[in-house]
Amino acid sequence: MRRYWAEEFMSLAERCGMDCSEVRRVSGWIETAVVAERRCFTKSMTYNADRRLYFVGVHPRKLDEDGDAVLLCGGAAGGLRDVFVIPWDVFFDALRGGEPISTHTDGVRLQYKFYVRDRQGTWIMDVQRGPRPGLDIGTWLHDPVDALEAVKKL
Q1: Which runs of E-coded beta strand occur in the chain?
Q2: How many whole angstroms separate alpha carbon 53 and alpha carbon 116?
Q3: Positive/negative CA dihedral, 123, 136, 99, 96
Q4: Angle (CA) 5 6 12, round 5°
Q5: Count of domains for the chain
Q6: Distance (Å, rounded) from C-alpha 6 to C-alpha 48?
Q7: What are the pLDDT digits (tens) for 40-61?
Q8: What pTM was estimated for this model as a whole?
Q9: Which structural domain, as residue segments, surrounds residue 145?
Q10: CA-based angle 66:69:70, to the nearest 5?
Q11: Over 80: is that where the pLDDT of 123 sits?
Q12: Which pick of 4, 89, 125, 153 has the fewest CB atoms within 10 Å?
């Protein structure tokens, strides 16, 4: 069963009385939403415990959009556990430091691929073909309930 962590976060927000609405879905996944009057790009990420990381891709067209926050919603078998509430400009500036790569054998589907790595409690976002070390995003990590407040405070 596939887990859609961003949808679980949206459901939690609604149960807590926050106004939420989907703006766009891509390939069955919620991609853009308005949460507490903030336009948010959302990504669902499943944690790889062996490698201590999340691995995600973003289509280059997203870099042309504007918004308030990026919600990287991650979990594992135990459920939704990590929500990174990153300012939109900070996240997309970090992506621009990398280079989109082909993700299919036909060579025409480009994505910015990045890892969110847990390194002894420090969460680093490394964009493929981008500068090292990557962006320290640990200050934007929240448990799901605290992430609701973080979105409101943007």
Answers
A1: 20-26, 29-35, 38-46, 53-58, 69-76, 79-87, 101-102, 110-119, 122-127, 135-136, 141-142
A2: 5
A3: positive
A4: 90
A5: 1
A6: 17
A7: 999 999 899 899 999 999 999 9
A8: 0.93
A9: 5-153
A10: 100
A11: yes
A12: 153
